[in-house]
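Good day; I would like, with your permission, to put a structural problem before you. What I wish to show you is a protein chain and, alongside it, a tokenised description of its three-dimensional fold. I would ask you to consider whether the tokens describe a fold that such a sequence might reasonably adopt. You will find the record immediately after this paragraph:
***
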Amino acid sequence: MVEVNTKAPDFKLIDSNLKHKTLADYKGHKTVLAFFPGAFTSVCTKELCTFRDSMVKFNKFNAKVVGISVDQPFSLAQFAKENLLTFDLLSDATREVSKKYDSLHQDFVNVPGLTASKRSVFILDKDGVVRYKWVSENPGVEPNYSEIEKELSKF
């Protein structure tokens, strides 16, 4: 289980440009890992666009935003294009990373066998240590964006 003040689990995922990304690629920056249930859904679109619109603030904190979902990289590429997202979107098609971060819905929206990433946010410091954790069981609830900014300002 991922907890605050522990090292974030490493990962190797494919981004929307079909390039491999690992946690080490973000070392040296504060990193906001934003797991989301699915591209092109209303709440996820609103959430990721809110992160997009907050990038000036995140840049001030030397922070990178990384979106992670179980969507295929091709869907994520189109989602990024349509919403002008300028940060990495990573495909957890195998669901392994969502499981590592305790952020996987089983039987999503009461459909047996359907899985999706839970809406969750993990803030990592420049060394990859978790400094903030928020995981929602309700996919309709967005994170508290001002709380994320406040946490980023602390270190």
